[in-house]
């Protein structure tokens, strides 16, 4: 029988590798068990292969959770600047793309390599192709059956992420384990996910590939970014962002005139009565989108011939266009999973279970979900550090 590990971390993703490195470098004996053939697979495909590894503006307000205060402590103790310092320490070149989103200049592989180098510095053992079939807890120790072998540790960290993109090997194993240990799970659902259109709105599918800067709103939360029409409905950053706030049956409102203040159309009528709504919209939006919006509004005449009331109504419709998505593209296309292991079960300082000492949960497995733009990795790093420093 080998000496027990101080900690077994299930999942060699962003949170698991970060937590393992921190604990290992504090002298803890750490084993990471990863189901797939290689570590950090989601890191590798993230940010279009360049990994949007953090967001310089990340703060608690950028996260959704049943307890919006839960993430504060970990986020305050490990900040985007801390991660950036680590990245720079490895000489990884980076750039800010937009809205505080930081990406590698080169490849996401650099982030995985960096985390593995950090793990190696802490003499962490990372075992891939590990088939975890059972976990038992007895007399303050955890026994993990992996590939037919029992492995013992004094702590167990659930870092198996969420079920978004199952094609990549993502699983809901975290919830299975949580339930085994009697921890509450907030219902998981797809987030940062494209929404689908049906009924009369299928018309918009005809402009698949067209995108425009808009303000999208769902449940009183708005994002000013690009929206993209797809052959199934709506996507693009603005839509992915609001999808996390959208619930089936809710409308999504889109302001197609983010730069046109109130009274814009009447002003245009005075300035240029020969102009048409179509010609004006074509200046602000892609032609195919402008055409379809005008077709739906049914205002083809020159502005000078249109009653002010009709122009006011058209402007209002354009600034609050109500789409009624009939669903989302689900976990198959969701960038993250909302919900997960309830924060009520965990210490916000250490991520340790309040009821089962030695059991921890970090990263996407926990009911903390970030906006699009590097926020989810920042949560993975921060929660990984919180646990790694406490193990
Ligand atoms: P993560 O999913 O990274 O790791 C979990 C690990 O556990 C995986 O390696 C998995 O194989 C393993 N596992 C699962 N079940 C297991 C089991 N039973 N036993 C052992 N191991 C098991 N975020 C961001 O901030 N910036 C970005 O650019 C992107 N881009 C992006 C693109 C795409 C396409 C997706 C799908 C997601 C993103 N994200 C993102 C989100 C980000 O990838 C995600 O939030 C983090 O990877 C979560 O880190 P975790 O370590 O919690 O889970």
From TrEMBL:
Entry's EC annotation: 1.14.13.-
Domain of life the protein comes from: Bacteria
Database matches in InterPro entries: BaiN-like (IPR004792), BaiN-like_dom_sf (IPR023166), FAD/NAD-bd_sf (IPR036188), RsdA/BaiN/AoA(So)-like_dom (IPR055178), RsdA/BaiN/AoA(So)_Rossmann (IPR057661)
GO molecular-function terms, A-Z: oxidoreductase activity
Domain spans labelled RsdA/BaiN/AoA(So)-like insert: 189-336
Cofactor: FAD
Alphabetical UniProt keywords: FAD, Flavoprotein, Oxidoreductase
Any single Pfam family the record assigns to this protein: HI0933_like
Domain named RsdA/BaiN/AoA(So)-like Rossmann fold-like: residues: 6-389
Name of protein: NAD(P)/FAD-dependent oxidoreductase
Origin species: Altererythrobacter arenosus
């Amino acid at each position: 029988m080998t000496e027990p590990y101080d900690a077994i971390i299930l999942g060699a993703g962003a949170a698991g590798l970060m937590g393992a490195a921190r604990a290992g470098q504090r002298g803890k004996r750490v084993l990471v068990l990863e189901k797939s053939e290689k570590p950090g697979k989601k890191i590798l495909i993230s940010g279009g292969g360049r990994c949007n590894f953090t967001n310089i503006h990340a703060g608690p307000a950028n996260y959704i959770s049943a307890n919006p205060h839960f993430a504060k402590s970990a986020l305050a103790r490990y900040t985007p600047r801390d991660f950036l310092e680590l990245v720079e320490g490895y000489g990884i070149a980076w750039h800010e793309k937009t809205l505080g989103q930081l990406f590698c200049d080169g490849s996401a592989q650099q982030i995985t390599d960096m985390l593995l180098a950090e793990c190696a510095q802490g003499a962490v053992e990372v075992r891939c192709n590990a088939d975890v079939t059972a976990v038992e807890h007895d007399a303050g120790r955890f026994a993990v059956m992996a590939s037919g072998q029992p492995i013992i540790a004094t702590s167990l960290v659930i870092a198996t992420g969420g079920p978004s993109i199952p094609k990549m090997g993502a699983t809901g194993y975290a919830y299975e384990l949580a339930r085994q240990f009697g921890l509450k799970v907030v219902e998981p659902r797809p987030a940062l996910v494209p929404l689908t259109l049906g009924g009369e709105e299928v018309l918009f599918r005809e402009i698949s590939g067209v995108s425009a800067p808009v303000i999208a709103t769902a449940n009183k939360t708005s994002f000013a970014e690009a929206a993209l029409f797809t052959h199934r409905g709506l996507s693009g950053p603005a839509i992915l962002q609001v999808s996390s706030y959208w619930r089936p049956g809710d409308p999504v409102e889109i302001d197609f005139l983010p730069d046109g203040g109130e009274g814009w159309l009447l002003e245009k009528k005075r300035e240029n009565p020969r102009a048409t709504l179509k010609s004006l919209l074509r200046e602000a939006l892609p032609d195919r989108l402008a055409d379809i919006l005008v077709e739906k509004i049914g205002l083809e005449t020159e502005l000078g011939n249109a009653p002010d009331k009709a122009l006011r109504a058209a402007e209002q419709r354009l600034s609050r266009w109500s789409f009624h998505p009939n669903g989302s593209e689900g976990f198959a296309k969701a960038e993250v999973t909302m919900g997960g292991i309830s924060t009520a079960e965990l210490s916000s300082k250490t991520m340790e279970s309040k009821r089962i000492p030695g059991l921890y949960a970090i990263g996407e497995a926990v009911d903390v979900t970030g906006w699009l733009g590097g926020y989810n990795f920042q949560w993975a790093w921060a929660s990984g550090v919180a646990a790694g420093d406490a193990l």
